Amino acid sequence: HPPNTWRLSWMLLPPPDSKHLKERLEEHGKTEKSQDEQRHGDEKATIEQEKEDKIEAPTEEESDDQKTPQATPAAPSIAVPSFNLDSSNTSTDPETTSMPPPSLLTPNSPQRAMPPPPKPTTKPSTPSLMPPPSFPAPNSAQRASQSTSSSLMPPPSRPTRSSLGVPAIPGRAPPTLSPAAQARAPPPRIDTPKSSSSKVKLAPGFSPLDWASLAASKNLANVSSFTRVTPSLLKEKNGRKGNDAWSVYNGKVYNITPYAPFHPGGKGELLRAAGKDGTKLFLEVHPWVNWEGMLNSCLVGVMVSESEGEGLDAMD
Ligand code: HEM
């Protein structure tokens, strides 16, 4: 017998105190003894008998303590009832076989409650008597959820116009696009009232970035020092007759002439505030623009009253 069959056979044997086994062991012991006596003489036969008596005929005390008989090379010739999963002529002794192996059950047998195990991809090392339960069941919710999360499943279909309750427009069938084309297509445009931008096309070298680098490079105020500007002086600086254009924003006076070619709204728009306070106009068009930061290098001075200007000028 191969080792696996040995182990299986011993497990299925009845307890050693069973009447059936005892009878067979005794019968076997007698025949062995008589044969040995004839062959080897009295002395050797006595030793053999003692040995076999110890092994094959356990006392009542021993059988209580020891449920499994010892397997030793001294008793190999006993016909051990066993069955093999693969062979058809296996023992079906009702005393030794508590449950028939699955291969012996007919498909319609009431004992065959469990379905046959699915064919394993890798062969198991030891044969199992019970088929493993198939998990999850073919129609279980777990299997359903697994299959929906699979990447092989197509995505849920997009709602159609009719499914949303919107009637189809006759003669205006939407163009049929492939799924890839639909993914690349831009989102639908939401039309808003067109804003009338009055930005002008700036000449090359007069971009906002160009202005930023120029304004950072030098002072563009074109005055000798910080100036107190009176209203009459501001009026003169209107950008005509070769004069610079000054404008007031929040009480500060800026020379806007250098900035004019860089103004995104155009030179004309900017110069509307030349020689004046342009705060109101400025805030009407683009209150978000940070003029202080943009025009820092163009700062001329501050607005003062006519009397303050004269007096201060006299003091200087
Ligand atoms: C010195 C002060 C000013 C500075 C620093 C300045 C700066 C700017 C800037 C940066 C923009 C572009 C805004 C943007 O794209 O969002 C702009 C646009 C514009 N600015 Fe000025 N601006 C000044 C004065 C004025 C004044 C006094 C007016 C009108 C009287 C004006 C009229 C406009 C207009 C019409 C636009 C075009 C707006 C548009 O349609 O996008 N700006 N300005």
From TrEMBL:
SMART domains the record matches: Cyt-b5
Keyword Nucleotide-binding attached: no
PROSITE patterns to which the protein is assigned, alphabetical: CYTOCHROME_B5_2 (PS50255)
Compositionally biased spans, kind Basic and acidic residues: 21-57
Keyword match Heme: yes
GO cellular component: cytoplasm
GO molecular function terms listed in the Swiss-Prot or TrEMBL record: cytochrome-b5 reductase activity, acting on NAD(P)H; heme binding; metal ion binding
Keywords, ordered alphabetically: Heme, Iron, Metal-binding, Signal
InterPro entries reported for this sequence: Cyt_B5-like_heme/steroid-bd, Cyt_B5-like_heme/steroid_sf, Cytochrome_b5/Flavoprotein_Rdt
Bias-annotated ranges (Polar residues): 84-93
Region (Disordered) location: 21-200
All copies of domain Cytochrome b5 heme-binding, residue ranges: 226-304
Positions with biased composition (Low complexity): 137-151
One Pfam match: Cyt-b5
Name the record gives this protein: Cytochrome b5 heme-binding domain-containing protein
Protein species of origin: Aureobasidium subglaciale (strain EXF-2481) (Aureobasidium pullulans var. subglaciale)
